[in-house]
Amino acid sequence: MAEFPGGGRAFRHRSGQRHVGRRIAHRATADAPVLDAEAGELVDLPGSARLRLHSPHPRPGSSPTGQGNRLWRVQMVGADSVVAFLERWGRPIAYGYLAARFPLSDYQTVFASTPGSAEMPSAGRGFTAELVTRLICKGVSIAPILLHTGVSSQDAGEAPQPEWFAVPASTASQVTAARRAGGRVIAVGTTVTRALESAAAPDGTMLAQSGWTNLVVEPGRGVRVVDGLITGWHNPDASHLLLVESVAGAELTQRAYDAAVAGAYRWHEFGDAGLLLPT
Q1: Do 10 and 47 fall within a single domain?
Q2: CA-to-CA distance for 158 and 149, rounded, in angstroms?
Q3: Could you say which of 84, 181, 183, 194 is the most buried, measured as most Cβ atoms within 10 Å of its Cβ?
Q4: What is the pTM of this model?
Q5: Is residue 247 included in any domain, yes or no?
Q6: Are 148 and 142 spatial neighbours (Cβ–Cβ below 8 Å)?
Q7: CB-based contacts of 172, cutoff 8 Å, min separation 6
């Protein structure tokens, strides 16, 4: 998860690892995307490193306007290690509503263990070690999954970007057993929902699975294993909101958002979260 200044007119956002040797980068100025980049272009970075633009992601003309691309598959040149480069020069992606910069540790949830996300899965930020312990003592089981979140760039009606996920066999068995026993499966965040649904068979049985998911969870598709959702608050035209409606239903989602607006809840990664349990 990083944002770092590039040479000339643009900032570069490291948005995720597509496969070995290639990353996804967001080409933008401080105010708007830069859409006229070309394949093969070299972008100067600090420390004598460079980015070589390889190809548009996920395809040419995929910006909201249909003209140009803000996301590119890139290769870093002149740096021994991408991780070391980001540790030296990078900083967490920050949005304009934040009045200050915060260290990377403030973006990591209590569940974080494997680096790879481009942004914080913010629904889990409210959990602490103490809260997790209290939940377990009350009989709530917590099962781990891995999903490397991409950039939250879907506020303009874009479909979610492909993301890497892994559902281990132990979690698949735990979720399946809970459902068979009449329990509820509560996903902590839209990213967790996407990962679980990507590993779900049509009959709701969970499978141990990992890889890149292109799944779009929306009301027409619905959900197979998730019964409830802990989530932050998303903009009205964000694809995340369609996922929330898939779990909670349009009516409950609208009521929750009306209450959030009336209560002046905070949006985005350092914002508030709610538990949605459809009846």
Answers
A1: yes
A2: 15
A3: 194
A4: 0.78
A5: yes
A6: no
A7: 199, 206, 207, 208, 209
Same domain assignment for residues 56 and 133: no
Enclosing domain of residue 240: 105-276
Q: Is residue 96 part of a domain?
A: no
In terms of domains, do 73 and 204 share one? Answer: no
Q: In what order do the strands lie in the sheet with 163-167?
A: 146-148, 163-167, 209-213
Residues 158 and 269 in one domain: yes
pLDDT tens over the chain, length 279 residues: 344 444 443 444 555 554 434 555 655 544 556 667 788 888 888 888 888 888 887 677 666 665 667 777 888 888 777 778 877 887 777 777 778 888 888 888 888 888 777 778 888 988 999 999 999 999 999 999 988 887 765 555 566 778 889 999 999 999 999 999 999 999 999 989 999 999 999 988 999 999 989 899 999 999 999 999 999 988 777 778 889 999 999 999 999 999 999 999 988 778 899 999 998
Same-domain status, 177 and 244: yes
> Dihedral angle at the C-alpha atoms of 218, 221, 226, 228, nearest 10 degrees?
50
How far from chain centre, in Å, is Cα 139?
28
For 234-266, letters b (16+ CB in 10 Å) and e give beeebbbbbbbbbbbeeebbeebbeebeeeebe
- C-beta atoms surrounding 58 within 10 Å: 16
Q: How many CB atoms sit inside 10 A of residue 180's CB?
A: 10
Indicate the number of domains in the chain: 2
- Same domain for 117 and 255, yes or no, is yes
Q: Same domain, yes or no, for 260 and 217?
A: yes
Residues 172 and 197 both lie in one domain: yes
